[in-house]
UniProtKB/TrEMBL annotation:
Any Pfam family matching the protein: MCPsignal
Domain Methyl-accepting transducer: 110-271
Protein name: Methyl-accepting chemotaxis protein (MCP) signalling domain-containing protein
Keywords: Transducer
Length: 271
């Protein structure tokens, strides 16, 4: 059995062993197709007994007596095809050509899917990075607010110190007014004018004491609200920092996904 006969007899088995759909064409030295095993998903429009298409992969292989590899666009046969043709030699004599047309439909789908994943990953990465930047900026702003809240609390504490001083002055003034009233009573008619002044001093001291009490209540309320706000800011800052960290992790994961999609596309091109 000649080499050409062997390739003809093994063509059917060879097609079954191929993982992708394909067709197999074997010609004699003149380009006459002596064996053709058709594909299932595309039709190259040739049959046994025909001659190889002039200018095609097989014709070029026969003319050059060298290996020919071509990628045929989807427009020709409905699916993209990778055509490979090898010249056959026996005892140094050219005896024909052996060609395989391999469907790249799966490869094309894989490439399109990989490109879609990469594009989507890039969009999500950009959005996530923007979110991370916003979360980081928010965390910085909240930190500034927290510091401002601390300053407010410090000012409130200083205000309480001033009120304590005013309260002491009010007490002292009240005692001074009381002593003045006593002395005015001792002076009798001569001390009536001084008694009026002493009475007004005591009223002023009492009013100051009551005002200090009311102001303390207001300041304590402000202090309580400030503490609540500060606590909320601290919690919000922690949340913002966690969001920034999570967003950066998501962005990193999406970049890895985009890289994996690129690797898939590269593998698809190798097929």
């Amino acid at each position: 059995m000649t080499l050409l006969d062997s390739t003809i007899h093994s063509a059917e088995v060879t097609k079954k062993l191929m993982p992708l759909d394909c067709c197999i064409m074997i010609t004699d030295p003149s380009g006459l197709i002596v064996k053709f095993v058709p594909a299932q998903t595309f039709d190259m429009g040739v049959r046994e007994g025909d001659y190889a298409v002039r200018g095609g992969t097989v014709d070029e292989c026969i003319r050059t007596k060298s290996s020919i590899h071509k990628s045929l666009p989807q427009e020709l046969y409905g699916v993209p095809i990778k055509a490979t043709c090898e010249p056959l030699f026996e005892d140094g004599k050219f005896i024909g050509a052996y060609a395989i047309g391999l469907s790249l439909e799966t490869q094309a789908t894989l490439q399109q899917t990989a490109q879609a994943i990469a594009a989507t990953s890039e969009e999500i990465t950009a959005t996530t990075e923007e979110l991370a930047a916003t979360a980081t900026e928010l965390a910085r702003d909240l930190e500034k607010l927290k510091q401002s809240s601390k300053l407010v609390a410090e000012h409130v504490d200083k205000t309480e110190e001033i009120l304590s001083f005013v309260s002491e002055v009010a007490v002292s003034s009240n005692l001074l007014g009381l002593n003045a009233a006593i002395e005015a009573a001792r002076a009798g008619d001569a001390g009536r004018g001084f008694a009026v002044v002493a009475s007004e001093i005591r009223k002023m001291a009492d009013n100051s004491a009551r005002s200090v009490t009311e102001i303390k209540k207001i300041i304590n309320a402000i202090k309580s609200e400030t503490e609540v706000i500060t606590l909320g800011i601290i919690e919000s800052t922690a949340i913002g920092e966690r969001q920034a960290t999570a967003s950066n992790e998501i962005a990193s994961a999406m970049q890895q996904l985009a890289s994996s999609a690129t690797n898939v596309e590269n593998i698809a091109q190798i097929i």
